[in-house]
């Protein structure tokens, strides 16, 4: 078990392999979605992109659920063509929206427009069909402590973190990143009924340790906003 001083009420699930942790996360997510479907007849799931989630998507896609009643969306997206290798939509379509999950209602954060600002109204409109608040949110985390596309160096970060703005998405242009992005805003993300953080590797544990050290400074490491009771962290080496 890695040495980590996590805040009270935050659970850490550790497995020996990425495959095993993916299976455990998929089981936890399927259970949350099942409960939501039983409770309100629809369910909503926001997932993250990047390199980590692929085996989790594969495992979740085989879970028997009433997927046609599940809204699936991303917590953040790069403003690139959906055929581009960097597209999170491409990743979700290839690895999650298949097998049992092929009938899920995918709501894309990438709409037409040359920039995220140009497409933002269309993204907000698409998001109106999602069953809010999110039933399940699966976040990733970067080495800089970003989660979703809440990047510490994004000039638009204050806007994306602001409580009570009523906006679900925000366009961001972090200088550290090659592509402009759209991200769900912090108020929408923290309102999720259940939140998991899926991370892999020793470097991510170091980032998590740094995040736990000064929990109040969210702008420096936005992942800190989620280090609170109820969070489940899924980690493998
Ligand atoms: O750019 C992104 O990075 C983070 C972490 O990605 P990983 O490749 O280190 O797993 C991800 O959570 C976020 O959704 C994505 O857009």
TrEMBL record:
EC number(s) given by UniProt: 3.1.1.31
Highest rank taxon of the organism: Bacteria
Matches recorded under InterPro entries: 6-phosphogluconolactonase_DevB, 6PGL, Glc/Gal-6P_isomerase, NagB/RpiA_transferase-like
SUPFAM superfamilies: NagB/RpiA/CoA transferase-like
Entry-linked CDD domains: 6PGL
GO molecular function: 6-phosphogluconolactonase activity
Catalysis: reaction(s): 6-phospho-D-glucono-1,5-lactone + H2O = 6-phospho-D-gluconate + H(+)
Swiss-Prot/TrEMBL GO biological process terms: carbohydrate metabolic process; pentose-phosphate shunt
Record key words, sorted: Hydrolase
First-tier enzyme category under EC: hydrolase
Family that this chain belongs to: Belongs to the glucosamine/galactosamine-6-phosphate isomerase family. 6-phosphogluconolactonase subfamily.
Primary role: Hydrolysis of 6-phosphogluconolactone to 6-phosphogluconate.
NCBIfam families assigned to the protein according to its UniProt record, in alphabetical order: pgl
Name under which the protein is recorded: 6-phosphogluconolactonase
Organism: Marinobacter profundi
């Amino acid at each position: 078990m890695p040495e980590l001083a996590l805040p009270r009420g935050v659970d850490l699930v550790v497995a020996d392999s990425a495959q095993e942790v993916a299976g455990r996360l998929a089981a936890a997510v399927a259970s949350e979605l099942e409960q939501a479907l039983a409770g309100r007849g629809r369910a909503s799931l926001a997932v993250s992109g990047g390199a980590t989630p692929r085996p989790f998507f594969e495992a979740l896609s085989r879970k028997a659920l009433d997927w046609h009643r599940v809204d699936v969306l991303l917590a953040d997206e790069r403003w690139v063509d959906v055929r581009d290798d960097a597209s999170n939509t491409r990743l979700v379509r290839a690895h999650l929206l298949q097998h049992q999950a092929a009938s899920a209602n995918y709501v894309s954060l990438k709409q037409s427009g040359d920039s995220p600002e140009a497409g933002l109204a269309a993204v907000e409109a698409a998001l109106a069909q999602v069953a809010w608040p999110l039933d399940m949110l699966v976040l990733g985390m970067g080495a800089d402590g970003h989660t979703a596309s809440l990047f510490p160096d994004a000039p638009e970060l204050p806007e994306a973190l602001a409580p009570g703005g009523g906006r679900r998405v925000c366009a961001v242009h972090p200088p550290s990143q090659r592509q402009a992005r759209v991200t769900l805003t912090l108020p929408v993300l923290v309102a999720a009924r259940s939140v998991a953080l899926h991370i892999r590797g020793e470097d991510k544990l170091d980032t998590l340790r740094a995040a736990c050290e000064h929990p109040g400074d969210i702008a420096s490491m936005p992942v800190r906003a989620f280090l609170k009771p109820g969070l489940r962290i899924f980690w493998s080496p």
